[in-house]
Amino acid sequence: MVNISLRDVPDELYQQLKQMAELERRSVNQQILVLLERSLKLQQRPSAEVWQRIEQRREAIASRVGLTPDSAELIAEDRSR
């Protein structure tokens, strides 16, 4: 495993990390790792293959049940009543 050193952490940020860690019953180091992992997972974008499968499923549904109306149009229509 690699060690990373983090310098110049503002006191307020460190206190927030420390409080989060205490609430989660983790060390500050463990809490930082959890937050980094979550952040990286949120940054990951679906691959082109995933988007292709989504589009294929969307087309399959549309061919079975027809095109569904745009929800924004339905909401606007409902509000105009």
Question: Secondary-structure blueprint of this entry?
Answer:
Layout: H1 11-23, H2 28-43, H3 48-65, H4 71-79
Helix pairs in contact: 1-2
Distance between the termini: 63 Å
Beta strands, count = 0
Structural class: mainly alpha
Taking all residues together, what is the mean pLDDT? 88
| Beta-strand percent range | under 5%
> Which of globular, elongated, flat, extended, rod-shaped describes the shape?
elongated
String of helices and strands: HHHH
Unreliable spans: none
Largest sheet composition: none
What value does the Rg take, in angstroms?
23 Å
Helix tally equals 4
Structure description:
The mean pLDDT is 88. It contains four helices and no strands. The chain is mainly alpha-helical. Helices cover 69% and strands 0% of the residues. It has helices spanning 11-23, 28-43, 48-65, 71-79.
